């Protein structure tokens, strides 16, 4: 066993994993004076110390009671369950456990213990088990997520989450802050499978649902935020709780998002920038853990609505600007087309002037006609072939000038406009 009840004040005593020789000897002296006893069978406990297990309690002659053996067996299963976690995992558990134990001393109706000790017969264990009036909570922490184990971890989390629910226990998940990845320019958060699996649905999320539902009816809603929406079948705001050390104190960051993609990359729409909660406030017990600040939530919803208003105005202004630029571009293109047409007419006049004295041939040759038609009406290779094989034999192979004059007289801007004129010639 690793823990025991102090016989004087009935408080749970925790031995440090490592200790100096003097500290080890002192703990052993206390044990000899029968100050420690098993919390299950009340038998006297001794203190042992070894390289593998560190400092720990043991029954005399290692004859553990049945309850203790069940705890040891559960501890081994739990150790295997968390073997993928980082060293920070244990640190965070101890911090949360200490905070909850302090609260349980004030709230006598609150029971707190490590998960595998509270529920030795379970197949899955939370890191911490909490019982309050009318509710049981399973607190778990996720660290050390990597691409190689993300999908497998997500499946394990889903299985564990459903198991807790089947046991009538509400799962509460925290995740290491370093896993958070945000695209600010797209108002989005990119999630691990594991993160999406542990996202919770709280009372505050339901309030956000109502607000977002009124806004997403606008089909341009996500365009305002430059968010690349996938297919949001229904509004479903979820929350994640990131845990980390900030300025030498542990805080929880509350992050809410609108669930979107269920295929990688798992992108979701950020409904707010998130906010930090002091650790003690986040774990305040109401009907479960508080996990939010209603005043901040109200302020952020108001800020969100104001942001939408500003985004709409900015988006409308951008559309007006784009339309003005489009009209200007079309005007410039039309002016350029007219200029080229005038240049082509001038070229033709100059060419005919140069050939006035040529008694043998005063007509355009076909190559010159092709060049002029390409510049004037954008003649394509396919249209050129049609002109040569279908229309020129009827007009006359050497009558290129006739074709050009028809273009000028009818102010043709495309071969489609010229074609019926040629067919009626």
UniProtKB/TrEMBL annotation:
<dbReference type="Pfam" id="PF25164">
    <property type="entry name" value="CoiA_N"/>
</dbReference>
<feature type="coiled-coil region">
    <location>
        <begin position="318"/>
        <end position="350"/>
    </location>
</feature>
<feature type="domain" description="Competence protein CoiA-like N-terminal">
    <location>
        <begin position="25"/>
        <end position="66"/>
    </location>
</feature>
<keyword id="KW-0175">Coiled coil</keyword>
<protein>
    <submittedName>
        <fullName>Competence protein CoiA family protein</fullName>
    </submittedName>
</protein>
<dbReference type="InterPro" id="IPR057253">
    <property type="entry name" value="CoiA-like_N"/>
</dbReference>
